[in-house]
């Protein structure tokens, strides 16, 4: 094992390699309920070339490699399930190119969402990217690799739909580029080249994303959050259909929560609108409330909870730790918007059964083509019983997603196994062939998407 430590030191430098127990412990856990999984080594490369050299060495030594971004997935997706080397990519955080006219930015995959937002505020305040609602330390590459969604999901879709190009280190060490950058052009498009979507949704088991080109969008001068409230959850799909039809909102999130008490058994729709003038904001507000939502107000089944509240971009993760025990995890799913009522009812039942205040949330994706629906379960890290309650609730909710005809989003190993148990056999075998072809020695984040 000293041979591997020596090789890592030669590649990235002594200051960026560790096998000390206290540092391995830090990398053995994430913020969710997964039990600790210890690596043998941690290395922090600075370039794609260093990543490539580490992966080639790992193939020779048959040692696992687990890429790590911000460690914010909660579901154990970047834990070293088979030991080996954790590659902490957060040193790879350069912002390489900002093309304002073509509205894209080229960045290293370890750059955080917070860093990109700050860079745009300073250098291009009229542009923005889709923030996931996670803490600012969440990395761009990690979010893309799990098909993350953000606060521009309603008009533009998943964050992984906003890619113009990728640089990836394959499991055998080759550095490949995909998109217009692959033919020596600028990083402005993935189209119309052959689709090589082998790296998104795979949890780093098919390669390590090292560089991305991300689309940027207009950032308006004014921003506010309006809230519409209904008591009957069955109204939510119709209300969201009306709101997406008018197309005035930048972000739409439906939510209900047992805490704080005013939210319990009520359903709030947060409507984020933006504009470049007060007249534009007023026009959008009239279209939403006076035209699309007025009938619910007249019928006495809906009410305005707030209007024109000054709003920062939403940080959904801030609402999770109701037990004040330092922990929460959630099951995310991609569901039809029409499933909201049943998702709410069944999720609240699971929370009650496990003594956890319920928190359910659905973010509209792509003009109501779908909804990222999540059930959050807070727990006290210092209480093993509390952790086990949350873990059991998570597993029950994975089963519920499948029962309701949804797709588990960023599934942990338990959820991956559920999905594969229902997957078309030919699709499953194709996945196996792809992984075997790309990763013949099985070193890339083993334990994830393992086809029997």
UniProtKB/TrEMBL annotation:
One Pfam family here: FAD_binding_4
Domain FAD-binding PCMH-type: 34-219
Top-level class of the enzyme under EC nomenclature: oxidoreductase
Cofactor(s) the record lists: FAD
Assigned keywords, A-Z: FAD, Flavoprotein, Oxidoreductase, Transit peptide
Listed EC numbers: 1.1.2.4
GO molecular-function term, one example from the UniProt record: D-lactate dehydrogenase (NAD+) activity
Family under the similarity heading: Belongs to the FAD-binding oxidoreductase/transferase type 4 family.
Protein name per the record: D-lactate dehydrogenase (cytochrome)
């Amino acid at each position: 094992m000293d041979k591997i430590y020596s090789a890592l030191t030669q590649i990235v430098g002594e200051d960026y390699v560790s096998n000390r127990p206290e540092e391995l412990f830090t990398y053995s856990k994430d913020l969710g309920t997964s039990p600790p999984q210890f690596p043998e080594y941690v290395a922090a490369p600075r370039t794609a070339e260093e990543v490539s050299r580490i992966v080639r060495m790992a193939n020779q030594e048959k040692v696992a490699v687990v890429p790590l971004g911000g460690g914010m997935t909660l579901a154990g997706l970047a834990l070293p399930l088979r030991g080996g080397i954790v590659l902490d990519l957060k040193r790879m955080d350069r912002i390489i190119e900002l093309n304002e006219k073509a509205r894209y930015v080229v960045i290293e995959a370890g750059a955080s969402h917070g860093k990109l937002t700050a860079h745009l505020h300073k250098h291009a305040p009229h542009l923005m990217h889709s923030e996931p609602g996670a803490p600012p330390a969440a990395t761009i590459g990690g979010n893309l690799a799990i098909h993350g969604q953000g606060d521009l999901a309603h008009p533009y879709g998943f964050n992984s739909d906003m890619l113009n190009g990728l640089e990836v280190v394959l499991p055998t060490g080759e550095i490949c580029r995909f998109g217009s950058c692959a033919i020596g052009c600028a990083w402005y498009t993935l189209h119309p080249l052959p689709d090589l979507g082998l790296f998104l949704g795979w949890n780093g088991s098919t390669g390590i994303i090292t560089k991305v080109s991300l689309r940027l969008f207009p950032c308006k001068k004014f921003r506010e959050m309006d809230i519409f409230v209904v008591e009957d959850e069955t109204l939510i799909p119709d209300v969201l259909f009306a709101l997406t039809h008018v197309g005035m909102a930048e972000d739409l999130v439906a939510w209900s929560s047992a805490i704080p008490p005013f939210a319990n058994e009520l359903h709030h729709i947060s409507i984020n609108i933006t504009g470049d003038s007060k007249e534009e904001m007023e026009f959008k507000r009239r279209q939403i409330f006076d035209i699309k939502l007025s009938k619910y107000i007249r019928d006495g089944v809906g009410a305005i909870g707030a209007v024109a509240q000054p709003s920062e971009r939403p940080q959904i993760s801030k609402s999770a730790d109701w037990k004040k025990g330092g922990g929460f995890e959630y099951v995310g799913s991609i569901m039809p918007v029409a499933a909201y009522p049943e998702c709410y009812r069944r999720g609240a039942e699971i929370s009650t059964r496990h003594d956890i205040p319920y928190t359910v949330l659905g973010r509209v994706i792509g003009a109501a083509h779908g909804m990222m629906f999540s059930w959050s379960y807070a727990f006290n890290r210092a209480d093993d019983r509390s952790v086990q309650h949350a873990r059991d609730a998570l597993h029950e909710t994975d089963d519920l997603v499948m029962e309701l005809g949804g797709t588990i989003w960023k599934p942990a190993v338990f959820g991956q196994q559920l999905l594969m148990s229902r997957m078309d056999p030919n699709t499953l075998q194709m996945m196996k062939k792809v992984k075997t072809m790309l990763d013949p020695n099985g070193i890339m984040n083993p334990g994830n998407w393992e086809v029997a």
